[in-house]
Design brief:
The complex is a heterodimer of chains A (264) and B (312).
Chain A (H helix, E strand, L loop, with lengths): L3 E11 L5 E11 L3 E5 L6 H8 L7 E6 L2 E2 L5 H7 E4 L11 H6 L14 H13 L15 H15 L3 E5 L7 H16 L3 E6 L2 H7 L2 E6 L2 E6 L1 H4 L2 H8 L1 E8 L5 E9 L2
Parallel strand pairs in A: 3-8, 3-9, 6-7, 7-8
Antiparallel strand pairs in A: 1-2, 1-4, 4-5, 9-10, 11-12
Helix pairs in contact in A: 4-5
Chain B lengths: L7 H13 L7 H35 L7 H4 L1 H14 L5 H25 L5 H25 L6 H8 L8 H20 L1 H7 L3 H6 L4 H23 L5 H13 L3 H25 L7 H20 L5
Classes of the chains: A alpha/beta (264), B mainly alpha (312).
Chain lengths: 264, 312
């Protein structure tokens, strides 16, 4: 057992005194692991990620990062530790890719100051690591969906955080880009970065994650090894869908989850 | 040169006398025309042009909306109302006029901000409409003061805030707004890279370590000081704050690190040219506010037809 990187303790969250969106969420995650939060749409995945990122304030409970409550971090200090890729992004200005990625350096740039040579070097470095240096001078608004997602990964690399929160990172992409992004997430975790991603596709969780949470109506339904918790009974309970779990031999060497039909 | 003809040599001679204390034979009236009428007016055009364009560019990013400007947001008329109110209460002292203009402009901004947060289906159009409504509200309040104001002592200066002009700018006015404007300019100049982070989603910006509430507050206050100060000396001059940032964006791109500087520079040159046209185009002076609209609207519509798809 390694040391827990993230500790989510008895978290409740509600939007403006309405019904609780998150109820009694409780789990911990070790450093360098990938956790998938799996649930149908509208079950609180995004809300949970925003809570862990300190964007939303809990109704009760606490979230610890390296055994320190995230609410005591200052905004820019927390951003050095945690980076976040939102599910949707609506740019109104056609920034150049390099300028978009450079924004990830913000936590290291004091107020009333500007990016230095070092920041620009790190920005190019993160583009290079993802093999997209050739996009640097392009306008963000002219890129494809897959390329845009890569730009966000470059930005969180530039942010040099230890924990990445990815909201549906591979859901809106075509098949080849989905695989590319999932491979990249795996690679990032090999560098020792801890990753929490949300998804509504069980097979994405099986493909790359070390741990998996199944969520149902704002509650943690089950937490554990994805190969164990993703089974036909749980998929039926959470998604209302019957499925087949196939043990796939080489080259996949993993279980595969195939949805079959909805249960009426 | 100009409506009161002074030859170029005489200008040099007067400037030489002022700066180097050289002997000069030109009549003293030349000195008054140059230093008390023309000089503050030129400086006023530069400052007001830079102010409106700069705050327009920043408001556009701040509200994530390419169709706003100090006048469309209602800030300019808000400030104009404050100024008119100060005059109505016989506080025709620059300090009061400016203070009232700033507070009233700030009320207009926060009214806009509050409404923009309350609108359920937030679209560019609904934001622009609420800005126009706030502007119209303050415009009508100025009209209200106009009807109750003393027609001899107060009315002329109140009407002035409705129709922008630089004809009454004095050295004293310039001196008075110089401190608040240059302080605000300096703050915005130093924050200009960070403004980029407020043009993206707030939650996304927070995840990158931006204290969005704090930063936005500083920036909005600075922009409002700048707008209110320029309204104090020139009245409401429309279209400059909307059109110039778009021209600047075409030239230097959307990065606020460059945009802040280029907007201010282009804006000051633009208003200086327009004010020269206002003075010299006809035998009577054309009110500046009218000319900026007559020139600004066609430019705006031209840009809107060509680039407008991305604006709404």
């Amino acid at each position: 057992m390694g040391i827990a990187k993230v500790n989510v303790k008895e978290v409740f969250y509600a939007y403006e005194n309405k019904k609780d969106v998150l109820k009694e969420i409780d789990f911990s995650l070790q450093s360098g692991k990938i956790l998938s939060i799996l649930s149908p749409n509208g079950c609180g995945k995004t809300t949970l990620l925003k809570c862990i990122n300190g964007i939303l304030h809990l109704r009760s409970g606490s979230i610890l990062l390296d055994n320190k409550d995230i609410s005591i971090y200052r905004v820019h200090e927390l951003a050095k530790k945690i980076a976040y890729i939102p599910q949707f992004h609506n740019p109104i200005f056609p920034y150049k890719v390099i300028d978009m990625v450079l924004m990830g350096r913000n936590p290291y740039i004091p107020l009333y100051s500007f990016p230095r040579k070092n920041d620009i070097a790190i920005t190019y470095q993160s583009l290079r690591e993802l093999g997209i240096e050739y996009l640097a001078e392009k306008k963000y608004s002219e890129l494809s969906g897959g390329e845009r997602q890569l730009i966000f990964f470059a930005r969180i690399l530039a942010q040099q955080a230890e924990l990445l929160l990815l909201d549906e990172p591979a859901s809106h992409l075509d098949l080849s880009n989905q695989i590319k992004i999932l491979d990249m997430i795996k690679q990032l975790s090999n560098f020792g970065i801890t990753i929490i991603m949300s998804t509504h596709i069980p097979d994405q969780a099986l493909m790359i994650s070390d741990n998996c949470i199944l969520m149902k109506e704002g509650q943690l339904y089950v937490y554990g090894d994805p190969e164990i918790v993703i089974n036909t009974r749980n998929i039926e309970q959470v998604f209302g869908v019957s499925s087949m779990i196939i043990d796939s031999p080489y080259p996949a060497n993993r279980k595969i989850c195939v949805p079959i039909s909805s249960i009426i | 040169m100009g409506k009161y003809p002074i030859s170029f040599l005489d200008i040099l001679s007067v400037v030489g006398k002022k700066v180097f204390s050289t002997q000069s034979t030109v009549p003293p009236i030349f000195e008054t025309v140059l230093f008390n009428i023309r000089f503050p007016r030129i400086l006023g055009a530069i400052i007001v042009g830079a102010s409106l364009s700069l705050s327009g560019a920043i408001f556009q990013g701040m509200f994530k909306n390419l169709l706003v400007s100090p006048d469309i947001l209602g800030v300019a008329h808000g400030a104009g109302f404050g100024a008119a109110l100060a005059v109505y209460f016989s506080r025709n002292i620059m300090l009061y006029v400016q203070g009232f203009a700033f507070i009233s402009g700030l009320i207009a901004v926060f009214l806009f901000y509050y409404i923009s947060q309350r609108i359920k289906h937030r679209s560019t159009l609904s934001l622009v409409l609420s800005g126009i409504a706030i502007g119209a509200f303050f415009y009508d309040l100025i009209l209200l003061i106009k009807t109750v104001a003393d027609p001899y002592s107060q009315l002329p200066s109140i009407v002035f805030w409705l129709m922008g002009s630089l004809s009454t700018v004095s050295n004293q006015d310039i001196l008075f707004i110089l401190i608040p404007i240059s302080l605000s300019f300096f703050v915005l100049f130093m924050l200009r890279w960070k403004i980029n982070l407020l043009t993206i989603d707030d939650e996304e910006a927070r995840s990158m370590g931006v204290d969005t509430i704090h930063l936005r507050l500083i920036i909005i206050i600075c922009c409002t000081i700048i707008t209110a100060s320029s309204v104090c000396i020139s009245g409401v001059i429309s279209w400059v704050g909307l059109v110039i940032p778009h021209i600047a964006r075409i030239i230097v791109g959307p990065d606020y690190k460059d945009l802040v500087i280029s907007s201010a520079l282009i804006g000051s040159v633009y208003l200086l040219i327009i004010d020269n046209l206002a003075r010299n185009l006809a035998s009577v002076e054309i009110p500046l506010g009218i000319l900026t609209s007559v020139v600004g609207v066609p430019i705006f519509l031209f840009l809107f037809i060509r680039k407008g798809k991305a604006w709404v």
